[in-house]
Amino acid sequence: MREGHQRTGPGAITPDGCAVELYARLPAGAEPDIVAAAVPAGASILELGSGVGRVTHPLLERGFAVTAVDESAEMLERVRGARTIRSPIEDLDLGESFDVVMLASFLVHTGDVEVRRGLLRTCARHVAQDGCVLIQREGEDYHTNLPRERVDPSGFTVRIVSSEPVGDGVNSVRAEYEFPDSVWTQTFRARPLTTEQFEEALREAGLGVDRCLTDDGTWVRAVRVPGAAGRR
Length: 232
Known about the structure:
Elements: E1 6-8, H1 20-25, H2 31-38, E2 44-48, H3 56-61, E3 65-70, H4 73-76, E4 83-86, E5 98-103, H5 113-126, E6 127-136, E7 148-151, E8 157-167, E9 170-178, E10 183-190, H6 195-204, E11 207-212, E12 219-224
Parallel strand pairs: 2-3, 2-5, 3-4, 5-6
Antiparallel strand pairs: 1-10, 6-12, 7-8, 8-9, 9-10, 11-12
């Protein structure tokens, strides 16, 4: 398991500390609707970090052509109806372009700056010239409004328990997911980004913010910067 990532709870655990069974239980939430409202009907979508298909499956039901990428074979085994590719995101180079590239699950906040650069280069490398990249980022109070919890209508509780600095601008975040029959905990590292830092990271990859897709700014639509060809 990667440095700084820990997980407790039943079932298989991926290299970045994600429990496959937990993610198979989590609902899709608002994400499919956010994506569908931001892109053309029937668009081709490259979903980076698809996991078990929590968002993949609703997008397929809406008529999108989804290519799901994840480094975990156990996660991809749960995906149905989409083309699947097992690969670390930062290493992906399909030689193809897509109408939409998705980087959700706060992956842009990875603690490793070089990994983040690789993630965003992969986005730029695969988005069509007139396409877009949809990125999910942390809310402004993600690391400060703590502890906090949310009870999902489906009957489980998610808590963000703590976020503690571990050096170099990175925090160690602890989360808990409590279901009636099981409990999972996850500790992972995340790098908070100001709006300016986020936009600079995009510019470095040849991308620029087009607009926010949600009132809280957690979903952003980015496009190629004129003259950028998808940096390697």
